[in-house]
Amino acid sequence: MMKLKDERIRKTGELLTNIRTLKMYGWDNWFADWLKETRATEVTHLATRKYLDAWCVFFWATTPTLFSLCTFGLFALMGHQLDAATVFTCLALFNSLISPLNSFPWVINGLIDAFISTRRVSKFLCCLEHSRDFSIDSGFTSEDLAVCVEDASCTWSSNVEEDYNLTIKQVSLRVPKGSFVAVIGEVGSGKTSLLNSLLGEMRCVHGSILLNGSVAYVPQVPWILSGTVRENILFGKPFDSKRYFETLSACALDVDISLMVGGDMACIGDKGVNLSGGQRARFALARAVYHGSDMYLLDDVLSAVDSQVGCWILQRALLGPLLNKKTRVMCTHNIQAISCADMIVVMDKGKVNWSGSVTDMPKSISPTFSLTNEFDMSSPNHLTKRKETLSIKEDGVDEISEAAADIVKLEERKEGRVEMMVYRNYAVFSGWFITIVILVSAVLMQASRNGNDLWLSYWVDKTGKGVSHYSTSFYLMVLCIFCIINLILTLVRAFSFAFGGLKAAVHVHNALISKLINAPTQFFDQTPSGRILNRFSSDLYTIDDSLPFILNILLANFVGLLGIIVVLSYVQVLFLLLLLPFWYIYSKLQVFYRSTSRELRRLDSVSRSPIYASFTETLDGSSTIRAFKSEEHFVGRFIEHLTLYQRTSYSEIIASLWLSLRLQLLGSMIVLFVAVMAVLGSGGNFPISFGTPGLVGLALSYAAPLVSLLGSLLTSFTETEKEMVSVERVLQVMILILFFVCQPKLIAAQKSHS
């Protein structure tokens, strides 16, 4: 089931990454159906688990009734007489043993989950670590060479794969320090693979790759961080004002940034959604230029900008004072860049077809490469008019609105108690008919159990006085009827609860997917994918698993407490009067604890989203991070998010222990008080009669677990409210999507009225 969950989350991540492409081709509904099929397979396995849990609930709930029937039935059939001391001592013992006995299946279930999770984590940790196949040894310290590749053959396959296809084949290359190398070739000739082999991203199966100095890398698809402009350019490096502004000017970003609200402190959306393609390429280049490495590996950085901006970047950045003494290896089709290169490398089918200077390149290799300049780069017109021509016109982006400054809004967190609308919506997801069946069967189940205990007390009283008008078989037959009714109602309650939980899980996922597919692209621009994935992973897991489980416990505690109150009211009202001050203290505790734990759970959910966002973002840019050797910086960022999440989780656990301690103190007080009352009443020293011995024994056996049941009810209600936060968060996303869908219509309606 965990594998299916991982597969579903992976597909959801693909949906979020490629949502614009899917919408453009009209494949979004097909992809949604594909995702729902994966979910259906997952739910099939979930159903098996839930129905097994239903059997556990059935045995857990019917154990007291079955124990009492078997024990007292055999005792009576063996000819012994039932008395209050024997019966209600046994009942108290049964109640104390039931909890640990029935916790055993849940413990086994938890141990199995822990074993599976540990095995999966262990398998991941035992995987081979990424290691660069090149090395820098003492013999490679020549000032003349920056790159030395000797008969290298590289593949994308991992070390554990025996069969692999070579992508780079028998490449030999020597790049002098400080040279500008243009790597050219047809599409698919191996240009990008050559750069990746130099970075160590590919496995070198033959030969050697040696680099001298630090490396900066600009991929063909620019990787943009979700953060401010400055954070994207600094990339963990200290801020140097002079170099920073020189970098912005060289990469033609000064005008763009000046038009942004907030300047270089303006926020860039997830994966740079509020930037044009040319801007993303220039930001990635500026990051590399500012880094100040010894070697620059550039993958077609000029293809995303127009010719005038390309000329500016080529002269001011690649050939300018910031990089003119650095080694630059660039894959390109740009005519100006090729003509300015110190060295040309022609790739063909993963091999170096030819390498040398521009003037020596034979026309027979690639007649399509003409070295005639389309623009005279020495002409001052392109430089002096640059600020007028560079008004961010590429890719159709004419202006940056004020909304772009805070395009990624902070995740909203509701405050106060969970609204009834959330509970009502969950009931709708489960189905009103199933909800009513669950409630009615739970109440009748508890009534049959209480009837069973009352019949036992009646049996004890009649046989104790010796005035019984019925035979032992009659008492046993009535006891069996109560037991059978209890079994049937418990079975209905357990399996209807499992069915309702599964139905809610399916409907929540399908509704969320449908809303997501129909959401406008503006929603994805302003909502990080990690935030959405959080709904599909942790929140949906809560709705699938822990929410139905804790709701079941809450319902059992509620009807159990209701049954105790009814029985105690029937036996002696004084018990309820004594409980009033304790109930007042409990109510004060639960109000304080519920409000605190509810907000802690919301903080827990909100603090989890940055972890998913940071993790997926780091995976997307892993090659860039490794090239810049910024692993420690990003590990530090991730640890910051993780530490914040752990603080909220730790606070949540501490709050639970705080409540548990106070409940135990109050519980010990009330048990002591009830015991003293029973002793005084039995000696005739109390002004109020306690009724027959059978009823007194029943009252004492019911009063003993009352405090723990009150505490369990409070805990389960609080936990239910915390788990309901997941439903609240899913509904929050659905409402937000609805707002984005209706917003254009509302604006159009306002304009028509005005």
From TrEMBL:
GO terms for molecular function: ABC-type xenobiotic transporter activity; ATP binding; ATP hydrolysis activity. Its EC number is 7.6.2.2. Keywords: ATP-binding, Membrane, Nucleotide-binding, Repeat, Translocase, Transmembrane, Transmembrane helix, Transport. SUPFAM superfamilies: ABC transporter transmembrane region, P-loop containing nucleoside triphosphate hydrolases. The chain crosses the membrane at residues 55-78, 84-112, 426-447, 467-489, 549-568, 574-593, 663-683, 695-718, 730-748. One of its GO terms (cellular component) is membrane. It catalyses: ATP + H2O + xenobioticSide 1 = ADP + phosphate + xenobioticSide 2. This is ABC-type xenobiotic transporter. PANTHER family: ATP-BINDING CASSETTE SUB-FAMILY C, ATP-BINDING CASSETTE SUB-FAMILY C MEMBER 10. InterPro entries: AAA+_ATPase, ABC1_TM_dom, ABC1_TM_sf, ABC_transporter-like_ATP-bd, ABC_transporter-like_CS, ABC_transporter_C-like, P-loop_NTPase. Belongs to the ABC transporter superfamily. ABCC family. Conjugate transporter (TC 3.A.1.208) subfamily. Residues 1-113, 436-722 form the ABC transmembrane type-1 domain. CDD domains: ABC_6TM_MRP7_D2_like, ABCC_MRP_domain1. PROSITE patterns: ABC_TM1F, ABC_TRANSPORTER_1, ABC_TRANSPORTER_2. It is a multi-pass membrane protein. Residues 147-374 form the ABC transporter domain. It is found in: Membrane. The keyword Nucleotide-binding applies. Pfam families: ABC_membrane, ABC_tran.
